[in-house]
Each structure stands twice: as C-alpha cells, then as structure tokens.
Amino acid sequence: QVQLVESGGGLVQAGDSLRLSCKASGTSFSKHHMAWFRQTPGKDRESVAKINWSGEITEYLETVKGRFTISRDFAKDTVYLQMNSLKPEDTAVYYCAADRNIAFVQSRIDYWGKGTLVIVSS
C-alpha cells in the first residue's frame, strides 16, 4: 500500500514560483510511475506532468511546457513539481498520483494524494 501526501500549495501572484512536494510511503515508490494532476471547478481533472519509474522520461501538458518541471528523489521517496512563471489559469487543486501504468488512465490509477491548492492571482 502506497500513501501520497502533497504539500507546497499556496496563494501567489502571476509570475511567481512554487514547488509542490509529494511524499510517498512504502518501499514500492521506485516501482511506480508518478504524475501530477490538477482540477478546477467545472473542469475535468487533467494530467499536468508525468515521470516514469526511473525518472528518465517526463511528459508535460502543452500549456505548462517550459514552465513546470517534474522530478523525483528516490532517497526521500518524494516527487516534486517546480512551477515557474505561474499564470492565473494554473489555479487549481493539484493532486499527486502513482501508477504502475505510465498511461495514467484516471479510472485505473493505483494511488492518489488528497491534493494541495494553488491560487494564482492576476
């Protein structure tokens, strides 16, 4: 059983930066692909960034490319999302996810965190 706990959200102004953290429990962390999703009222949850089990492959939502960076620290069992040049459109609850399948089909994702709120003011 893997448990995920996000942190690092907050209220910032457009152009500012935040780094989200997702701490995972268990010894299977390195066997899972990891991802960050986000959701705003009235919209479906969307994938923001993914990183494979080894940390060698990453994938990003087109609108965050060049601004967000996903990484993982195996020694700390932690995944990060560095968010730079934040925009009001980035406002959302951000969720950490872990899955054995890199596709991250939402209905089949193995583990979810409870989310951390990011608000970007204009």
Explained architecture:
The chain contains no helices and eleven strands. The protein is mainly β and 122 residues long. The protein has strands spanning 4-7, 10-13, 18-24, 33-39, 46-51, 58-60, 68-73, 78-83, 92-99, 111-112, 116-121. The strands form two sheets. Strands 2, 4, 5, 6, 9, 10 and 11 form a seven-stranded mixed beta sheet that branches. A hairpin with a 6-residue loop joins strand 5 (46-51) and strand 6 (58-60).
Biggest pleated sheet: 7 strands, mixed
* Termini separation: 40 Å
The secondary structure category is mainly beta
The averaged pLDDT comes out at 95
Shape: globular
What's the helix count? 0
Radius of gyration: 13 Å
Given as residue ranges, the uncertain stretches (5+ residues, pLDDT < 50) are none
Number of DSSP E strands: 11
Helix percentage range: under 10%
Order of H and E elements: EEEEEEEEEEE
Strand proportion: over 45%
Notable traits:
seven-stranded mixed beta sheet, mainly beta, 122 residues, four-stranded antiparallel beta sheet, single chain
